[in-house]
Amino acid sequence: MIAVIDYGMGNLRSVEKALQSLGFDAQITSDPEKVVQADRAVLPGVGAFADCRTGLVDSGLREAAAQFIKTGKPFLGICVGMQLLFEKSLEFGEHEGLGYFKGTVRKFPDEIIARGMKIPQMGWNRINKKMTHPLLDGIETGDYFYFVHSYCVKAEEAGVEALSCEYGIDFSAMVIRDNMAATQFHPEKSQKLGLHLLKNFGEWKC
User: Fold this and answer.
1) pLDDT of 75-114, one tens digit each?
2) Which of 91, 150, 147 is nearest to 118 (CA)?
3) For a Cys-Cys bond, which of 4, 78, 86, 129 suits 141, CB 3.0-4.6 Å?
4) 152 labelled catalytic
């Protein structure tokens, strides 16, 4: 079973439906015990970083997610679910992240607006492939995924950035280490390639 973690934030139903369309047993759950016992887990996130972190902690699902990650089973963060895995965010103040990856979540610089770019980034953007990994089978540099975000992060440790993207600045579009992976883009909204990545996740043996 793939647990889609429900902590009061996130585009849960679309993630669940995308995984189910691929033949996986995906279930939205707010039960910490079900999260820990799942075969795989997905942490979505939509909204402000601080609100998402508070929801995760107050629901008891922050500890459940930590326990799950320790089991070594596949774990996927999406959008703010990726940002939460980093050390901190500067969205509306400074907020501590979960610290699994080194880096700080920052707003896109205002000067890119003068270049005709809109904040938030909302729409399709191409990625650069930075590593070979089972999760990236069938995905290549130049492929497009769907983004909706005003804040981004650049991984600060070597060997974890799987995909990068440019929108005024270069940022991490996907990170992978051990049994943890996370995407800044929304695979559930990224049509064929997004579903392909989710299929890779559902079959990932890490």
Assistant:
1) 999 999 999 999 999 999 999 999 999 999 999 999 998 8
2) 150
3) 129
4) no
Specify whether the CB–CB gap between 126 and 111 falls below 8 A.
no
52, 91, 149, 186: which is the annotated catalytic residue? 186
51 to 3, 62, 101, 121, 176: CA distances (angstroms):
21, 13, 20, 20, 24
Element (H, E) at 172: strand 169-177
Selected catalytic residue, list 52, 79, 152, 165: 79
Provide the mean pLDDT of the chain.
Answer: 95
Select which of 16, 91, 161, 188 is catalytic.
Answer: 188
pLDDT at 142: 98
Angle between helical axes of 61-71 and 49-58 (0-180°, round to 10)? 80
